[in-house]
Write a structure and sequence with these properties.
globular; alpha/beta; 8 strands; six-stranded mixed β-sheet; two-stranded antiparallel sheet; single chain; about 150 residues; about 35% strand
Length: about 150
């Protein structure tokens, strides 16, 4: 499971010309689910995401988590994060989980994040063509992979 996390001043996702998810200060999270991901990956990444200290304290040092600043979350599924680009010029998405595996893990990720954060998590529409906009704060952008637990 892979995350691209962007600290946001604001972000939104539009499907069919309708805003389906919108946040103010918080995190825009792109979530890619691999064929071999499990609930263990969900648990580890949700904990990591909610506790990352990437918001500035009063001294301008990144000491606060999204929970500490009572920030919002917008989590969007994105199978292209699992692209293999080693050979050729056309990415391969063979590592990306199929709907029957990915949807339950995506829903689990959202539910656990909401429970631990104590608020509604904004989301995209799984499998839809989405238009995502972001005002990146910093910019701060991180990549985390549950296979490389650093």
């Amino acid at each position: 499971m892979r995350l691209v996390i962007q600290r946001a001043q604001s972000a939104q996702v539009v499907v069919d010309n309708k805003v389906v998810g919108k946040i103010g200060k918080g995190l825009l999270v792109l979530l890619g689910i691999a064929t071999d991901d499990t609930e263990d990956d969900v648990d580890w990444l949700v904990h990591k995401l909610l506790n990352l200290r990437i918001f500035d304290d009063e001294g301008g040092v990144m000491n606060y988590s999204v929970q500490d600043v009572q920030g919002d979350l917008l989590i969007i599924s994105q199978f292209t994060l699992l692209a293999a680009t080693k050979k050729g010029h056309r990415p391969s998405y063979i590592r990306a989980a199929k709907h029957e595996t990915a949807i339950p893990l995506y829903e689990s990720f959202l539910a656990k994040a909401e429970t631990l954060l104590g608020q509604t998590v904004q989301r995209g529409v799984f499998g839809a063509h989405m238009e995502v906009s972001l005002v990146n704060d910093g910019p701060v952008t991180l990549h985390i992979d549950s296979r490389a637990r650093e």
